């Protein structure tokens, strides 16, 4: 696959705003909600563009209260909205929400949203509405067996998330973050997804509750990127980095090329340059100081690489941002 010279500059002026409805029920999980919304907010912030717009919904438009007592007043009732994605998020007490009104609302929403997404226990409501028949789906692991027994027409999997468009699903709060991160990657490229994950320190170390993650291909790649982020000022040689995550250098190169379209050295450079951009926009450091902090020999070397990457020099970026503000 060939990539253009400006492949890394993934935020294009033609990016349309994607709309997301988040359907909440009483006893929804705060953590699940945050893991769905905050990556979208971060994508908007990092790109400087309204890539995503979301609204909070309930079946009837009335307020709902989370499992920990957080009240939310929705923007609208489900029947009044349409968009690209509908995140269905019942979490606890999900069976009590599987009412005829809920089923009618979800079936009607299928024609107004391009994709329905069952988050946490959301797949149960989608399945009980007849919307998962013939589709592959997952659910919170506590309910996998019961889910498969109750809905035999659904192809149930233990995967962390399933992208079986126009129906998607994930199994809990942590996997909600992973699913949304994957959507950002599909929409706007792997580098924006990597920046979003870095903002939340996702992948900095293997999760204690899921030790197998560090053995997966995606887990290894996140470990490599995390090591790169933690060694910005004095970069680690790629052979040493590969050894530290337990991969042959050729295997790491293959993983990087499959995920990003370029090798680990180019990925490392992209991470360093994005840190340089962050420092440029959010600190008063001189370009000389930023170049040192990001592993460049001098300001000239940083400026050349920065301009090639983003189409603008660091000092010009600062001027442009001041003018916008």
Automatic annotation (TrEMBL):
<dbReference type="InterPro" id="IPR009057">
    <property type="entry name" value="Homeodomain-like_sf"/>
</dbReference>
<keyword id="KW-0804">Transcription</keyword>
<dbReference type="InterPro" id="IPR018060">
    <property type="entry name" value="HTH_AraC"/>
</dbReference>
<dbReference type="GO" id="GO:0003700">
    <property type="term" value="F:DNA-binding transcription factor activity"/>
</dbReference>
<dbReference type="Pfam" id="PF12833">
    <property type="entry name" value="HTH_18"/>
</dbReference>
<keyword id="KW-0805">Transcription regulation</keyword>
<dbReference type="InterPro" id="IPR052158">
    <property type="entry name" value="INH-QAR"/>
</dbReference>
<feature type="domain" description="HTH araC/xylS-type">
    <location>
        <begin position="222"/>
        <end position="320"/>
    </location>
</feature>
<dbReference type="GO" id="GO:0043565">
    <property type="term" value="F:sequence-specific DNA binding"/>
</dbReference>
<dbReference type="InterPro" id="IPR029062">
    <property type="entry name" value="Class_I_gatase-like"/>
</dbReference>
<protein>
    <submittedName>
        <fullName>Transcriptional regulator GlxA family with amidase domain</fullName>
    </submittedName>
</protein>
């Amino acid at each position: 696959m060939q990539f253009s010279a400006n492949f890394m500059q993934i935020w294009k002026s033609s990016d349309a705003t994607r709309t997301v409805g988040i359907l909440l029920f009483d006893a929804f999980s705060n953590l699940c909600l945050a893991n769905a919304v905050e990556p979208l907010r971060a994508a908007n912030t990092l790109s400087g563009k309204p890539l995503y717009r979301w609204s909070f919904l309930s079946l009837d438009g009335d307020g709902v209260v989370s499992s920990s007592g957080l009240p939310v007043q929705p923007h609208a009732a489900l029947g009044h909205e349409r968009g690209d994605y509908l995140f269905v998020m019942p979490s606890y007490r999900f069976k009590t929400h599987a009412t005829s009104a809920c089923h009618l609302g979800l079936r009607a929403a299928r024609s107004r949203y391009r994709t329905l997404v069952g988050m946490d226990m959301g797949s149960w409501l989608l399945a009980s509405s007849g919307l998962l028949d013939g589709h592959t789906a997952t659910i919170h692991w506590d309910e996998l067996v019961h889910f498969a027994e109750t809905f035999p027409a659904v192809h149930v999997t233990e995967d962390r998330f399933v992208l079986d468009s126009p129906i998607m699903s994930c199994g809990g709060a942590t996997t909600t973050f992973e699913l949304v991160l994957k959507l950002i990657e599909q929409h706007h490229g792997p580098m924006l997804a990597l920046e979003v994950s870095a903002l939340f320190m996702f992948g900095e170390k293997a999760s204690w509750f899921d030790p197998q993650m560090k053995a997966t291909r995606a887990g290894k790649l996140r470990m490599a990127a995390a090591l790169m982020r933690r060694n910005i000022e004095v970069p680690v040689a790629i052979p040493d980095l590969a050894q530290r995550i337990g991969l042959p250098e050729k295997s790491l190169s293959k993983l990087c090329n499959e995920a990003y379209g370029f090798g680990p050295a180019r990925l490392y450079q992209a991470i360093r340059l994005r840190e340089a951009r962050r420092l440029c926009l959010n600190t008063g450091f001189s370009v000389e100081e930023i170049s040192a902090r990001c592993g460049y020999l001098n300001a000239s070397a940083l400026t050349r690489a920065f301009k090639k990457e983003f189409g603008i020099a660091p000092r010009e970026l600062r001027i442009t941002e001041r003018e916008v503000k």
